Protein: Osteomodulin
Amino acid sequence: MGILNYLLILHLLWAALVFCQYEDYDFEDEYGGEPDQPPYYFNPNTQAEVPRFPFPVECAKECFCPPAFPLSMYCDHRKLKTIPNIPRHVQQLYLQNNNIEAVPAGPFTNATFIREINLSYNNIKFHMIDHGVFAKLSNLVQLHLQHNELEEFPFPLPSSLERLLLGFNKISRLPGNAVEGLPNMTMLDLCNNLLDDSVFKEKPFSNMKNLTQLNLCNNKLETMPPDLPPSLQHLSLENNSISHIPENYFNRLPQIIALRMSHNTLQNIPHNTFNLPNLLELHLGHNKIKQVFYIPRSLQHLYIEDNEIENINVTVMCPTLDPLNIKQLTYIRVDQNKLTSPISTYAFFCFPLIRTIYYGEQNVPGSSPSRLRTPVFRRFLTPEEFQEAEDNHETLNQETEDDHEAEDSYFHPYYH
Structure:
């Protein structure tokens, strides 16, 4: 008997053991609600080089410079209307939650070492930013301008910039030269603006060779953004009006790890659309999808809630069994669809690592919202898996209240 046949027999015996485990366990009453999902955090690591200065260092009288963080100046939540003069040694400047309307060049004259500026939650408008004020900061790595009154992209910017947060503004266009000269940009957040498909005519993102995270959620897009760089790993397109994903669209984006497209108008998805080698997380909830699609081996979390799916065809999701390359899917959310019966038990052969299927309520035509036999299906955990789940739950419970109140409709743009 060939080695492949021997391996196949072992795999089938093991799968049968898993299947029996599912069949023997009663999930009826133990789990009654939707399992909480932690927010997604994207955490690039950047080490700041600390220049040597004589201490104690100076600090603007309007601000606070803690001795424990001598390179940081805290001017946030102080009802400031203007930016104070920034001492030469400052690397991190925090000006969020003030009443600042303008960004003049004067206060930044000596700020040659500054690496991070947070000007979020102010009243800044594009025409009130002195031309080139940011471009002159040759060490600037991270710039926060979300929750302001910007009508345009705040260019020019320094080539050193790696992370730019512009969410919750009024930006409606991206001039062709807006993102030129930004070879180090890894993360760009443009969620909650007024962007439509016209912004892609000049291919603004095509030359951003190091871009790994792009947030375009809560805009006015109707089509998939073209000419995105192949370096992209995290793409957020929720809360737009996208109705179609072109066939082979993701062929040029092989490094995608997480894709969020919930709250669009997607209907028919080509079978192999998401056949990506690195895809771990896929959000397609709150669309108009009627049929399931192929699930790549790497995918771990699938969200297809609030669609129009009547039947989940497992053979479409998993056309063949490969005992040497088992599917990694562990979590599926399928509530608010039109299912009348649970997913076929064949799914446990195709996806032997599944831990949770959240059925919730279903919107069956001609009846009020109904539940299947169990709203939540969970696999019987080993002691080691149970302890891991408990540890993860404890970590989740330690999140701050601010974390829970933060907008979770797109990839969280903050770093820990």
Q: What stands out?
A: The longest helix spans residues 3-24. Confidence is low (pLDDT under 50) at residues 18-48, 393-411. DSSP finds five helices and 16 strands in the chain. Helices lie at 3-24, 314-317, 347-350, 383-397, 401-405.
